[in-house]
Every structure is written in structure tokens, then in C-alpha cells.
Amino acid sequence: DNLPENFAYSDELANASKAWAVEAGASPKIAQAYHDRFVGYMAEQAAQQQAALSRSVEATHDELVRDWGPTDSDGFRQKLEVANRAMKKLGLVDAYKQKGILLPDGALTDPQIA
User: Fold this and answer.
1) Residue 84, in any domain of the structure
2) pTM (2 decimals)?
């Protein structure tokens, strides 16, 4: 039950995979053990991906602050507005969201985009 907050876990898939293991000759105990190890591994991978994403957002923020100045400065706000308008005008918002470059909260993961 110590799964990451946004971990996509399906009881239906878990139960089906354990049943398949039993059908293939594994005992219910072994099927459960495989399930637990698999879910644990996937949870670790999800946590590592989230940590990498957080580092990327932080690095992007830091680079933009270095280039544009403090986030509460007029220069930063103006450049951010220009970048946002350009993304919208060029129709890149959805593509950037799909690629993970633009997060739902508006954070960027790549300073080259701004």
C-alpha cells in the first residue's frame, strides 16, 4: 500500500495476473509474491520518474531565473508572457503537454522552449 500518489494500479489487472500465474502452475502464494515484487518495482520506477521530472522542472526554473531575472520581476513576467503567447500562436501547447515539456500546472521541463 506504499504506492506513489499517482501510481496507476488496477485491482482488476492484479487479480487477473495472479489468476493467470495460478493457471500456469504457480501456487497462490507464489503468484502473490510475483505480484508484490512487480508492483514494488513499478512503484520504484514511477517514483524515480517523478523525481527526475521534479529535478528537470527545478533546473528549468533556475535557468530561466538566471536568464530572465527573479520570477517576481517585470522582465521575467514579460518574457514568460511572450513565451506563452508564442506557444499558443504556434499551436504548440498540446504537443508540449503530450511530450511532457509543458506540465498541467504550466511548469516547463526544458528551458530551451521558453
Assistant:
1) yes
2) 0.68
